[in-house]
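Narrative of accomplishments. A recurring question from our advisory board has been how the design workflow behaves on a single, concrete structure rather than in aggregate. To address it, we present the structure tokens for one chain from the evaluation set, followed by the sequence designed for it. No filtering or post-editing was applied between the two.
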């Protein structure tokens, strides 16, 4: 409702809520973004990587891109780490971010290129999921579409991936195990320390 009736006020609220405060950012974020990732996918719309880039000296530049600009997620030079915001970037709020049930439904109504690319990469590359419960319906839609291509009984031999989060239900652990995702019960800062 706010998106339709009060887009300017909604944009102001989203910017106030999701702009990362430079004074509160722990140093371990610099270590996270300094790791040799091929690329970073995030569900967040915040400006975390821009703040990390301003505050810390990194060996690579961080390049933000949004699901709305899927062509920007191509391979980058070695000194650039692409940070792909699967639900949009704050500067594109309110229309260019996904946060409401109607927006999620619109994205689920047809194949989503950003999530399809992510699902394809999950088959061939190891992933480290940090802090996510991997609940994103658009991701599961894309994973299921890939699974159906190979037939229901055919098992994919994905590289081992890891989920770092303090808690996870037994049912979710079992499901993710089928996709070769191993749960590491810890906080993100514990991995980096």
């Amino acid at each position: 409702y706010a998106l339709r009736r009060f887009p300017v006020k909604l944009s102001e609220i989203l910017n106030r809520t999701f702009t990362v405060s430079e004074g509160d950012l722990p140093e371990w974020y610099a270590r996270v973004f300094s790791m040799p990732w091929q690329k970073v996918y995030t569900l967040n719309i915040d400006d975390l990587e821009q703040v990390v880039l301003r505050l810390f000296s990194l060996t690579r530049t961080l390049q933000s891109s949004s699901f709305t600009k899927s062509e920007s997620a191509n391979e980058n030079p070695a000194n650039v780490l692409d940070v792909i915001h699967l639900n949009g970037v704050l500067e594109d709020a309110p229309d260019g971010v996904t946060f409401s049930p109607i927006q999620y439904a619109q994205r689920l109504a047809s194949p989503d290129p950003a999530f399809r690319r992510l699902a394809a990469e999950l088959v061939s590359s190891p992933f480290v999921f940090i802090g996510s419960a991997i609940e994103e319906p658009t991701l599961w839609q894309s994973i299921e579409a890939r699974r159906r291509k190979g037939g229901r009984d055919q098992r994919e031999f994905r590289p081992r991936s890891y989920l770092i989060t303090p808690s996870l239900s037994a049912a979710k652990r079992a499901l993710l195990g089928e996709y070769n995702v191993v749960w590491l019960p810890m906080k993100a800062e514990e991995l980096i320390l």
